[in-house]
Each structure stands twice: as structure tokens, then as C-alpha cells.
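Standup notes
- DV: blocked on the single-chain target, sequence here:
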Amino acid sequence: MDAKGTINFDREIVVQYASKSFVTNLININYEALPFTFPDGSILDKATPTERESIKIRLEPLISKSGSLSLGGIFEYQHITTDLADGGYSVRTEPLPESDWKYYVVRYPGTSHLNVNLHYAASVCETPLDLLSFSFSEVSHSWKSEPLQKYFNIGRHPGLVEVSLDSLNEISSTYELLISTTGGVSGKGAFREIIRALQMLDSLNDLPSGSGFLCLGLFAIIEMLITHNPVLEDRGDSITHQMKSKIPLLSRRFDRPLPLSNFFGEATSEKIWSALYSYRSSVAHGGVPDFDKKHRVLVSQDNADKFLLVAVKSLIRHALREPYLYSDLRAC
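- DV (later): unblocked, structure below
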């Protein structure tokens, strides 16, 4: 090992870290942040040449269908965007030196199974790390087809995400909260609704891009965390009313403010949430959202869905810190 505790020989890595996850979403991490150790003892680091070869041999055949992007084309090149005079843009690709290739792995200590809790913790942080779409060991590998199609199909790849040391520390602290508050996925702790929210959020990653079910799924999580079934004869007890009153209350306690103005300009919180729930109702009841008139404040389906995702992540992170508050809110 070197001074930072990094194991430098592939053979030692195989012995001590038999189970590994390939970080399937494209990220870039400052060298000074690596290797990074999470509270469960797993280590995030650049993949070794041996690990890269193992990933390529096993993963490439899974994504080599017509219209797919190659591993090398994504993780071994940089994509440079240039704005054009007519308002459009062009993209060119340039190969990176091998030292800058963006293959990252999380190595799990001993022979432990993949840490689903760590994956869930990362999923609600500023920088998600997809640790479940492709995992491998010396003798086997496993994968999830739906997110792989999202990551590697031409025209659908989410693009590069820069990861800071602060982002990794946020994942670590969220992981510790997840374990201490709920006991984790396999635990028998309290607040299992938070675990269900994390599981539901993760399942939404399997949806195809642009699916209307994303809006419905995100609202289902919000409703599960903060609302109760409304009393039919009390119009003031509607789901819309509960959301418009409870979410602003909660958002004042979030670790960072909801970026309302970034998505919706100067519109008020009440107007935004009314429009969001109307958008949800249109989808749920077979209607067509009208982003030119009725739902104009939301700008577009993509814009509304991206904001809802930010809101859901914020709610889950906060629920891990103040779970009793959410229990009380559901009752009122």
C-alpha cells in the first residue's frame, strides 16, 4: 500500500476486493479526491488496467446493439461543444490520454455483496453514482438492461458530471444517515417509508427518457412522504392544498434551497406547485399537458420533471435527518 492506503497491485485488489461496481454514469473526479473511502469500507477509485479490460470484455457485448455508443467512445474521449453563429452548436470528440480515461470502480471489502444502501444514498445526492447497473468479480458479472440502454444509446446519454470532494462527502454523510435512521435496506429499523421512497426513486431510472410515468412516480414519492388521504368532504384537505402548504414549510429546512427561479423564473412557489400538480393530473387522467398555456409556467415536460427530481431528492435527504417531522406532517 502507499501512504494513502491504496492497494497498487491488481492481484491484491482481487483478493481483498472481490466484488466491484463499475460507475456506469459518466463522471470525472479530481485526482486529489481519490481514492475515496466510504463509511462501509468500500473504496472509489480509478479502475486499474486489469479492471478496465474486465469491464470491456463483459459489458461491451451487452451494449453492442445497433445504435449504441461504445465504451471507448464515451469513457476514453472528451466531447467539446462549440456554439455556432446561428444559435446552434457543434460537438467534436478528441481522444484522452490513458491517464485521463473515466473508468471508475467501487471495490467492496472482503466477499461482501454490493452495497445497495450506498447506491441509494448517492442517488439522492448532488452527484449520483450508479453502482448497480453493472457489477463484476473475477468469476461473474451482473447488469440491469434498462439503465444501460439509457447510458449507451445514441442521443440519450446524460453526459459528463464533475464530482468534487464535497460531493463524495455528501454521499458518505447521507449513507450514515440512511443506516442510522432506517437500518438500511436489509435492516429492521423504523421509517420504512423512506426505504420505499428510495426504492421507488431507483426504479424510475429504468424508465425510458421522456416517459410520462416519471412525473407520476415522482409525485407518488412526494405524496407518500408528506400527505395523507384527504377527507372527501373537506376541500381544504386536498392533495394539492397539502403540497402547497407543506412543501414550502419543509423547503425552509432543506440543506440547500429548492432552485425555483432556476427552473421557473419569478413565479411564486404556490403557482409552481399548483401547475405541477395540474401537470401530474393531466398525465394521470389521460390528458395532454399544455406547456403553451395552462402549464406555461413549467416551460416544458423535461424542465418540470428535472425540477421534481431535485425536489424529491431534497425531501428524502431531509426525511433522513428529521424523520419524525415527516411522520407528524402525514398526520395533519
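- Follow-up: Strands lie at 19-22, 27-29, 36-37, 43-46, 77-83, 89-95, 104-108, 134-136, 141-143, 161-163.
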